């Protein structure tokens, strides 16, 4: 039996993701753990006008989301951006590198989140070494991922509700502080000293745009979404807008309650809002932050395993990574491999520079997808699908290029190293496939 025949006869993924589950998946992935530190970084860039770069970044994210909505509903296959690149550019190398960028981003992000889980937030309750906690945490995430997509997303429903409630709590507490006459609402229009509005918006939008990253991972669930052509666009745009509204409210309240310089100096800026408001134990907010971290790691590893599965189905990675559990129909080999890689990264220690470089690579993924949607306009399909206004992917390409110009040289250098590793993996995979064909007995 040939590999292609085996692939065709192997069971596919189970379509168990409904519209509400997909909405909460995207919302949970976009909100993630980053927002709990994001406000401080934005305060350093934009002063009290934190809300403005958040609004600009929301617009940028919606532009690229339109391209994903068109391509996912046009080609509802697991693999996301890598599949789109393969169809658009007809180059296994380009497709592999796009997929590799996504994998590197996802696995490294999960490793960083696992370390964060074992760090300061957990130390409020238990004083344990971060690395062993991170490894156990990743194993538990893998076990939940292995159990099934429906079970994983049900857990996401609970965790998303908790992390969202934490942000809503910040907004409510901020309103209470302002209602009693404390704080300074005028700070929301103040910039850092000697900073222009243009510089504040561009520098802040670069950070804020990263807070919306996560929506692209939903493309890897295309084969598991019920009625994907109708459900996906609604869930995608709805989740992004919902996250944007929450971000904007937090961005207005936080600098009005706490001075921007104090937010910038804190590693837990939203905790400062809770502290000023009083009445809520800090341990409660630390627990919410831990849930947010856990949710981010779960959703990221779901993406990484489904992307690995999709690339294996496309012949970009070894076929063994496309195997699924007969009963659960989850990509168990892909889950094991991506978890092991995340564990190795977590055990190595410092991931800050690598994580920043991976975000740079995500911009290349977005650039590839936005170009692909234009290239594939000439490829007609029989079924109806979402179609973005042509100006949207064009504007999205411009935003990606602008954000790429803001990256630091050291991150470009590290990106080059990562791409070199990806190229080696691609060549090894192709050589193994060619050798298997040559060694196969003729009939």
TrEMBL record:
Coiled coil: none annotated. The keyword Nuclease does not apply. GO terms for molecular function: transmembrane transporter activity. It comes from the Bacteria. InterPro entries: AA/rel_permease1, APC_superfamily. Keywords: Cell membrane, Membrane, Transmembrane, Transmembrane helix. Pfam families: AA_permease_2 (PF13520). The chain crosses the membrane at residues 21-39, 51-72, 93-115, 121-144, 156-177, 197-215, 236-258, 284-309, 330-348, 354-376, 388-405, 411-428. It is found in: Cell membrane. GO terms for cellular component: plasma membrane. It is a multi-pass membrane protein. This is Amino acid permease.
